Amino acid sequence: MKRVVIIGAGASGMLAAKVASDRGYKVIVLEKQKRCGQKLLITGKGRCNITNNCEIEELIENVPTNGKFLYSAFYTFTNDQVIDMFNDLGVETKTERGKRVFPVSDKAVDVVRALEKQMRSNKNVEVLLNSKVDKIEAQDGKIKKVILSDKREIECDSVIVATGGVSYPRTGSSGDGYKFARNLGHTIIKPKASLIGLEVMEDYVTDLAKLSLRNVSINVYNSKNKKIYDDFGEMEFTKYGLDGPIIKSASCRMGDLSKENYKIVLDLKPALDEDKLDKRVQKDFQKYANKNFENSLNDLLPKQLIPTIVKLSKIDAYIKVNQISKEERKNLVHLIKNITFTVKNYRPIEEAIITSGGVKTSEINSSTMESKLVSGLYFAGEVIDVDAYTGGFNLQIAFSTAYLAAINC
Ligand SMILES: Cc1cc2nc3c(=O)[nH]c(=O)nc-3n(C[C@H](O)[C@H](O)[C@H](O)COP(=O)(O)OP(=O)(O)OC[C@H]3O[C@@H](n4cnc5c(N)ncnc54)[C@H](O)[C@@H]3O)c2cc1C
């Protein structure tokens, strides 16, 4: 019986195990953690955005790095098939804003349990936990065996490397797959953080830490003052800068920060243009005419934000509202729609949702996920140099590439 070793029991490894075992192969899954799917458990803030319910072409458009490499994978195991698979496994799904698909239960743990149960349902699958792979050996350009860190050796015909990237290393993904691939002659495109929080120059963000904002918009400008991205939705302040969905999405449109400067302009009231917002502020100023300025913004802005806006507006916090000039009011309105942050740094890669970089795609056959350098060596998931925006696209990559590797291994 053909023996397939799968390294990693994350999203891609668990699916690959099921598919390969259904082909009648003996499958040995090696997972270094004591449980399967540790990263999956924290996906989508514990809700797991399984995939995106869009057209296949849109899936590809949402993969800025090497999206075209995924044509075969996405068309062979589609987002519809992912949804059907979970429904068949008893995980009912729902589609939310932006066609994001979640389990109805809103529990990532249900996704992990379903994938693990499915994987273990075939008796040809053996799952070895606490089993860290140290090396993959090939002979005459063909896979021979894997060697574990406790020196156990497992002979096999094929290996699927499903070890993930380097972000959130406590979940088990710490870049081991890059080492295996490099030792076997593959090129590794330097890993870098993607979908990550941003550190900014403006120190006052520390006062705003933990403040979440909804229904705000951002515009991102490069050094040439060219708008490179805009978005609308949720974000939050941290003690070092900005984070949350729209900031993470912006981060993966930004390049090398040592070569390019970026500014993020935050609009706290995108639904109102400056004229409408001005009318709204005038109404509040009439209501609070005899109050101090610092006490006049409670109806308009979150409490935690008010002292910062007051400071940035350069209007005296203790001036009576009825003494604020028209020009000061207009400047305040402009400020509320244009709070500008200068990006200093990305947060460390360990905090990234996604690792950009990994095994070079031109060295992998995109129709099979097999290495072009070593026969019997396959790659699946985040270890490959592909990465997508938020919206369930990254898990779809994991599932589609795993499926393709498993039907070809
Ligand atoms: C906080 C967070 C939230 C996210 N939310 C979403 C979301 O909602 N939707 C979405 O599409 N994507 C999301 N992602 C991204 C998504 O989780 C990953 O793209 C996906 O898990 C990658 O799957 P994978 O199988 O390639 O790797 P992983 O799921 O990381 O699995 C790799 C496995 O390999 C094991 N392993 C590594 N090295 C070895 C070794 N030497 N020996 C044995 N085992 C090893 C690891 O322990 C791990 O279990 C999120 C990521 C993070 C960090």
TrEMBL record:
Q: Does the keyword Transcription apply?
A: no
In terms of SUPFAM superfamilies, this protein maps to: FAD/NAD(P)-binding domain (SSF51905), HI0933 insert domain-like (SSF160996)
* Spans traversing the lipid bilayer: none
Named cofactor requirement(s): FAD
Give UniProt keywords alphabetically.
FAD, Flavoprotein
Q: What is this protein called?
A: NAD(P)/FAD-dependent oxidoreductase
Q: Which residues form the RsdA/BaiN/AoA(So)-like insert domain?
A: 193-354
Q: Which domain of life is it from?
A: Bacteria
InterPro entries from the entry?
BaiN-like (IPR004792), BaiN-like_dom_sf (IPR023166), FAD/NAD-bd_sf (IPR036188), RsdA/BaiN/AoA(So)-like_dom (IPR055178), RsdA/BaiN/AoA(So)_Rossmann (IPR057661)
In which organism is this protein found? Answer: Intestinibacter bartlettii
Domain RsdA/BaiN/AoA(So)-like Rossmann fold-like: residue ranges: 3-406
Record keyword ATP-binding present: no
